């Protein structure tokens, strides 16, 4: 059974590093904004499967460092966590939500109603594009 809980930012680090930056030191996944964000973890049978960090400013929200354990990708866990934060942000009065998505994840975000904004860009040798969604209140 899957459970989503708000977690401390320290809890996100291992999964962030293993999934997003496996060849980088753990310090690479620490955000200076972590203490100002909301962090959620999806657990299945008490095992942390997926994490995401959410930053809300007024009616806009950004989510960052969204990572799902490689052994559990493609099984709906990431979609479950994304749908959770979409519902959560909507309940907080957020009108627009966005992320800087890896090019390899565009299909996933489009499936959830996100659209690409602007041109792709490169950061730390990884290509990204901003993806956004307007939330219906």
UniProtKB/TrEMBL annotation:
Ranges of residues in domain N-acetyltransferase: 1-136
Single GO MF annotation: acyltransferase activity, transferring groups other than amino-acyl groups
A Pfam family per the record: Acetyltransf_10
InterPro entries listed in its UniProt record: Acyl_CoA_acyltransferase, GNAT_dom
Protein name from the UniProt record: Predicted N-acyltransferase, GNAT family
Transmembrane domains' residue ranges: none
Keywords from the UniProt entry: Acyltransferase, Transferase
The species this protein was found in: Olivibacter domesticus
Top-level taxon: Bacteria
Keyword Plastid: no
């Amino acid at each position: 059974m899957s459970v989503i809980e708000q977690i401390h930012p320290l809890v996100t680090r291992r999964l962030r590093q293993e999934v997003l930056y496996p060849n980088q030191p753990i310090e690479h996944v620490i955000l200076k904004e972590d203490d100002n964000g909301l962090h959620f973890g999806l657990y299945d049978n008490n095992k942390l499967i997926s994490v995401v960090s959410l930053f809300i400013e007024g009616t806009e929200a950004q989510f960052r460092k969204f990572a799902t354990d490689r052994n559990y990708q493609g099984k709906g866990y990431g979609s479950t966590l994304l749908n959770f934060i979409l519902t959560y942000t909507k309940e907080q009065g957020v009108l627009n939500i966005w992320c800087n998505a890896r090019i390899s994840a565009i299909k996933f975000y489009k499936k959830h109603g996100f659209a690409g904004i602007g041109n792709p860009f490169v950061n730390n040798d990884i290509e990204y594009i901003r993806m956004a969604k307007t939330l219906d209140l």
